[in-house]
Amino acid sequence: MHENERLQVMVEGAIFAGLAMALEYVPHDLGVSSVQFAYGLIPLGIYSLRRGPIPGMMAGLVWGLLDMWLRGSGSLFNPLQIILDYPLPFALAGLIGIFHRQVKTALQANRWSLALGWITVGFLIGDLAKYTAHYFSGVFFWGQYAPKGQSAWLYSLVINGGSFIANAVLGVIVFALIVRLLPNLLTRHLSV
Predict the structure, then answer these.
(1) Domain that holds residue 142
(2) What is the pTM of this model?
(3) pLDDT per residue over 108-136, tens digit each?
(4) Distance between CA atoms of 39 and 42, rounded to whole angstroms?
(5) Keywords of this protein's UniProt record, alphabetized (predicted)?
């Protein structure tokens, strides 16, 4: 990779991480306890599918650190909890791009359904990885907020499992629209 292209990947990653962070300020509670949409998964997914999982994970890490610094100040208790709630899950979300080459190949061949299939599997992997980290944080650090008589394991599963499902549904719908209406968003590189 040339120095110019490396810089372009980094700048593009910073832009998408910033966009993901900006979307954190859009109301995103589903109305059921703490089940939330993470709208930032969409721009992070676009970037991860454009550039691959490693740059996607780096952009996710930046998003997680921004979220921690800008929104998490009241919920930072110890190093392990901080890692499980912020840098790790957001970085793992970059795994959405794990099949980026297959997606690009399918899109170039105008095989929309195949591309969406690869995107769906990648999105589910990244989304599941993100909420698995949040799940363990919920068990070990947030379980004290479980309703009386409910285990921390079940409480965290309900909250984080609900968020995983809500984001999976949203992601598949949005990426189905992108594949049909804006496929070049996933294949072309932005000029910087």
Answers:
(1) 3-187
(2) 0.93
(3) 999 999 999 999 999 999 999 999 999 99
(4) 6
(5) Membrane, Transmembrane, Transmembrane helix
